[in-house]
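Today's session is about reading a structure prediction critically. Students often jump straight to the picture, but the first step is always the sequence itself: look for stretches that repeat, for charged clusters, for runs of hydrophobic residues. Only then move on to the predicted structure, which in these notes is written as discrete structure tokens rather than atom positions. Here is the chain we will use throughout the hour.
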Amino acid sequence: MTRRRVVAPSLLVVLAILVGIVVPGCSGCGESPTSVDAAMKYLPDNCAMIGTVDMAAILANESVKKIQSEQQDDLKKVEEKFGISLSQVKRVTFGISDFKEGSGSAVVGFTEPIKTEKIVAKVKEEGGKVTEKDVAGVKVYAISDGPAFCFPSEQIAVVGDLATVEAVLKRGKKAELPAKLKAAWEGLGSSETIAVALSLDKVGPIPMLPPNLAENLDSAALFAKFSDEKIDIGGKVVCTEEDTATTLKGMIDMFVGQDKGEPADPSSPPDPAAELLNSLEVSAEGKAMTVKLAISKEMIEKLAPMATQMAGGLSNRAPDEDGPPGEEDSFGGEEIPVGGEIPGGETPIETPEEVGVE
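Below is the predicted structure for this chain, in token form.
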């Protein structure tokens, strides 16, 4: 029996793919309907990961506009499918409570009141049974074999698993974040276009990272700040041990160093990815490892075709092709002691003394 595919109105996923990507205190905070502060009311309490994307700032970026101009057909299809245009979205804020189960919610803030009945009609047209129920005075729509969604106001849509959507509506107040996640979240700056914080002990296996290192990771905070001249990207990983932070830095330095090599043919044009890696800054101080990267407008234009090809490849990949992510990318479960060799490689991970960390 062929299972009918249900197209879910996961605006978060659709918007992220089209734009080409992956806080309290950020530029979106405040009590406007589209602010992060307002979205906190619809995120789960026990978040393992929380993030926000200022879609309006991204879409106003000149480089992004150029990429969009080349994808008008795809953007039009999204508008026809969901009954809204990308330009109507101001911000997407999300919280994941369980990575394994995929539970959590995403809050989409719109720049103007939207016709919610039009979106509901479009979802129903896509197929699948849609049931309706009232939860705390808000009509919730649940798609069979799919997510639930609702519109607490004309400028807010909430999408997530049914249990989470019901729970946040019944709670009627802002989410209370776990202490570890809250510290990482509040440590982010005040003008990020994209900001993400997560508790690393709740993520599960991390691809390319040996288990003995992964178990010493505490939390992470990531950000991206868009301007017309460049995109600044940064991240901070807090570990439980200083040696772990130093080892992580050594691993990144090694992998980046391998990809910085000169082209085999000197007459061939520079590899944009290698050029980009040359501007990567990695440091370790105490229990924290920090990375910084500045992507110029010219570099964005060079990388755009590569990103488009990668997105196309991922969208055409079968769900179970090559197994679940990370299953084959964790060094076969082998541990890497500080100062030891990476399995299959010849470059040892340096000890704190060897890299000059006191």
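Discussion point for the tutorial: The radius of gyration is 22 Å.
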